[in-house]
């Protein structure tokens, strides 16, 4: 494993805890020996570079830093990482990608070089761009990265004719989906799913303590969200996006709402995403239902797909398909995925890919 690969692995530890900062990893090396690693922690705590510098101690002088994202050069909740790197007398820095955040955008590299530090940019660039895809999209567009997730039978059904949907895929697939939830800033569902399934929409992992629950987002045109929903009893916050002003009881903790009407009396999904981006929420993990997924695909708002496929047949003309909405009128209009990967999870298959219109 290369040193930058080690930094990438360290950065994965930051997923699910670093928001609103990107999940960055860092490694410090000297005389072909790894001195320390770092990853960006919760807001207000040390960034990856600072954690690694502190862990390296006095040995850090004349060492080499490998970091996945360009070090910040501005004051936020913490001081600039570039200043700490210069002060530590690190002699060489390998940076995976330039930070598209307008507050950095090459200025961090410039500061380091002006201080006499040898900077090499672009190591393992493609892999790091995937790990930081949510941060990249938010920085460039102001919109969060949207992943459409669904679990379906081999014939594309997400529920039986009765509406029953638990469980189509295996326990292993559900555990994988919880890891995806952990790595997301928010989980989105439509109100029909909230009513029919009464989901908790939380991250639940057997082998890991979850310190932060993603924001739960419910798309609810008519204000039908039930105030006895199980998700309201869970840790974390719930946000209901409506098409008209709805007043929920004031005594419900961590529940907020805002209207985003479009010209058809439905929720304007683009406006919802813009609002989430302003929070900032960098990633949205959409778990249904069929109509919400269809609307997001119809409007070109999906960046990535994660489809869990069970080797089973449900059948029936009244059984729901995974993606509703208007859909493609002609085959030439169908949504094509790129960079497609497949993973076997027991007898299930996870297919992931990127939408051509995504960032």
Q: What does the secondary structure layout of this molecule look like, with pairings?
A:
Layout: H1 3-12, E1 25-30, E2 33-39, H2 48-56, E3 64-69, H3 81-88, E4 92-97, H4 107-114, E5 118-121, H5 125-131, H6 133-141, E6 145-153, H7 171-182, E7 186-190, H8 191-197, E8 215-219, E9 238-242, E10 255-259, H9 269-278, E11 283-286, H10 290-298, E12 304-310, E13 337-345, E14 348-355
Parallel strand pairs: 3-4, 4-5, 6-11, 6-12, 7-8, 7-11, 8-9, 9-10
Antiparallel strand pairs: 1-2, 1-3, 12-14, 13-14
Walkthrough of the structure:
The chain is of the alpha/beta class and 359 residues long. The protein has 10 helices and 14 strands. The protein has helices at residues 3-12, 48-56, 81-88, 107-114, 125-131, 133-141, 171-182, 191-197, 269-278, 290-298, and strands at 25-30, 33-39, 64-69, 92-97, 118-121, 145-153, 186-190, 215-219, 238-242, 255-259, 283-286, 304-310, 337-345, 348-355. The strands form 2 sheets. It has a 9-stranded mixed sheet with strand order 10-9-8-7-11-6-12-14-13. Helix 3 (81-88) runs parallel beside helix 4 (107-114). The protein is globular. The two termini are 29 Å apart. The relative contact order is 0.12. The model has no long low-confidence stretch (mean pLDDT 91).
């Amino acid at each position: 494993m290369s040193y930058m690969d080690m930094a990438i692995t360290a950065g994965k530890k930051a997923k699910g805890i670093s928001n609103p900062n990107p999940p960055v990893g860092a490694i410090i090396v000297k005389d072909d020996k790894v001195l320390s690693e770092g990853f960006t922690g919760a807001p207000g705590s040390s960034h990856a570079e600072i954690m690694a510098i502190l862990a390296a101690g006095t040995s850090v002088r004349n060492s080499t830093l490998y970091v996945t994202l360009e070090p910040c050069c501005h004051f936020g909740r913490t001081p600039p990482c570039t200043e700490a790197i210069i002060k530590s007398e690190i002699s060489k820095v390998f940076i995976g990608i330039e930070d598209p955040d307008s507050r950095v955008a090459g200025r961090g590299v410039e500061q380091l070089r002006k201080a006499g530090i040898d900077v090499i940019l672009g190591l393992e660039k493609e892999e790091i761009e995937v790990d930081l895809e949510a941060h990249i999209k938010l920085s460039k567009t102001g919109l969060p990265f949207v992943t459409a997730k669904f679990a379906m039978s081999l014939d594309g059904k997400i529920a039986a004719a009765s509406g029953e949907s638990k469980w189509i895929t295996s326990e292993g697939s559900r555990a994988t989906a919880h890891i995806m939830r952990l790595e997301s800033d928010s989980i989105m569902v439509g109100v029909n799913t909230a009513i029919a399934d009464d989901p908790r929409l939380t991250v639940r992992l057997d082998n890991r303590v979850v310190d932060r629950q993603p924001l739960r987002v419910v798309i609810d045109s008519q204000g039908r969200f039930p105030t006895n929903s199980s998700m309201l009893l869970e840790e974390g916050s719930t946000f209901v996006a409506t098409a008209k002003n709805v007043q929920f009881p004031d005594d419900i903790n961590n529940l907020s709402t805002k209207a985003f009407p479009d010209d058809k009396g439905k929720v304007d999904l683009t406006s919802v995403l813009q609002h989430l981006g302003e929070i900032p929420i960098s990633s949205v993990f959409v778990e249904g239902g069929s109509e919400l997924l269809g609307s997001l695909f119809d409007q070109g708002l999906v960046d990535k797909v994660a489809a869990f496929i069970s080797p089973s047949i449900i059948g029936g003309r009244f059984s729901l398909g995974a993606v509703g909405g208007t859909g493609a009128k002609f085959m030439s209009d169908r949504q094509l995925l790129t960079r497609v990967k497949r993973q076997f999870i027991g007898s299930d298959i996870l297919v992931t890919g990127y939408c051509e219109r995504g960032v």
